[in-house]
Amino acid sequence: MASKISGVGVHTIRAWEKRYKALVPVRDASGHRTYSKTDVEKLMLLSELCLLGYTISKVAGLTIPELKDLLKDLGKTEASFEATDFNLINDTKLTIDPAQSLPILNFALKSYKLDVISQELGKLKILLSPKDFALEILVPLSHSLAEAHSSGVFTSSQEQATRSLLKFHMGYNLYHPHDKKDKININVIVSGMEGDLNDLALGSVGLLCGHYGLHYTYLGADITYEALSDTVKSLEANVVIVGPSNVHNQLGKSHFQNYIEKLSGKLNPSTELVVAGKSELDLDKIPSKRLVILKTLSAVDEYLSHKNH
Length: 309
What we know:
This protein is of the alpha/beta class and 309 residues long. The protein contains 15 helices and seven strands.
């Protein structure tokens, strides 16, 4: 539990105790360690400092006020410490503010510190809801990554490596079984349009489906309309979400229009087709009578939130 709340691995906690005397937890009659709120708070501060470049040997012996002073020197505010306060007695799950983690992640991204990104995301994907992880963390990071690549800060290989890391952590909630027992009687398929490789935004839609307890199948990016329509029929899906898509800008309006026309023509008339992302469609040419166009992820979120009622 101390490991899950602090984001520090079990083996790391033991090493910090044994080698550096960072903590001296109380042991019960059976010899099991009992971590106090103060112990876990120190673990969190030590972890954050190590992520920012300090070695554990330099900071293990410092007090909590001294650790906070170091973080303040690095730009962390007093309010941010109060925002991450928690109570182990009344609530065993840490309440975390994504706005406090995003600057660290953006700093690590611009510095190409994949280890820092991975460790921070490893903590957030457990502590945040799928919705908050998608909208408050993945989407902003995806935009920052795109900017870094387009401005020349990142090479193509660096952009690909970072994107793959984000996808790995996205998969924790995307493919992990959800705890909600009574899923809504809606069968959703989430798919990317052929030619569109932006699966971070697409994965965020899958996370939102899971957040609202919907039964969904995530196919990933770059799916042909034939494969998508066959999957819809086989799984008897009643909602298909295509996108969010950048294909409209990348491959042209005609490609986008043709894909939606052909897909719509193969779907059962009762199937709802949702086109997510900015698009310009000639609606008169699309056979589907149940077409929904949602231009932003916020609109997709609102749409899915109504589906769970």
